[in-house]
Amino acid sequence: MIFYFSGTGNTRWAARTLAERTGERLLSIPGELRERHAYQLADGERIGFCFPVHGWQPPHIVREFIRCMDIRNAEGHYCYAVATCGDNIGLTMELLGKELRLCGLRLDSVFSLIMPESYVCLPFMYTDTPEREREKIAQAAVDLDAYARLIVERKAGEVHTQRGAAPWFLSHVIGAYFNKQMITDRKFTVDADRCIHCGRCQQACPTGDVSLNDLRLPQWRHDGSCTCCLSCYHHCPVHAINYGRITRRRGQYFFRNEE
After folding, report:
1. Running DSSP on this structure, what letter comes out for residue 249?
2. Which distant-in-sequence residues (6+ apart) come within 8 Å of 237 by Cβ?
């Protein structure tokens, strides 16, 4: 089985591709977290985790899911993880491995997949140019094909990750601050005069954090369910949603083959 979380579609594409190649179940982490199922693995079934990197760490929704996950017969089953990122992942896989060991799982192989950038809420963060988007997606398809072959063959000890310079600092200093202080929906706003009331933001939100008020304007729940994946921002067809002031002049991106 493959557990996945995706905001703007990069990871969903990767997870669906792996599900097709392995013939195994594809399960969305937000939905599974709400239902709280217990899992029984079939003979020889692999356990995969696919997610985007958030601040050089696994997203908090992925960590929360792992902490309450109930897999009854995981011992001896091949376990792997694929993290999508715009550039590098720091010590994301090491942090994930610690979470998994607490529930009796051990990562056999880990992979990172560079995809188009979607985080735009810091002064130095921008979406990629259309040309760079195409280059990244084309290379990601090649890399994912290679990873899929290793996963199908249950190759252990495979580490294909871009950790970046100073990975400890990225994950434990910058990433720790980012995930503690900047994962919030309280900075999202909507330009009411631009909004066309289409509901795309509500449909795109993977955690159900966005709803529409009586005027069919988006509103955020402020209940801790937001992962700050920016899916609502990127899917708005008229750029009416912003995160603070900084995104008003930033680009938008989502993986369009996953619409």
Report:
1. G
2. 196, 198, 200
pLDDT at 163: 96
pLDDT at 197: 96
First to last CA, the chain: 23
Phi (first) and psi of residue 113, to 5 degrees:
-130, 115
Question: What's the burial of 44, exposed, middle or buried (CB within 10 Å: 0-12/13-18/19+)?
Answer: exposed
Contact criterion met (CB below 8 Å) for 163 and 57: no
- How do residues 212-243 score in pLDDT, each as one tens digit? 999 999 999 999 999 999 999 999 999 999 99
Distances (CA, A) of 218 to 9, 198, 211, 230: 21, 10, 6, 14
The string of DSSP letters for 149-182 reads HHHHTT--S-EE----SSHHHIIIIIHHHHHHHS
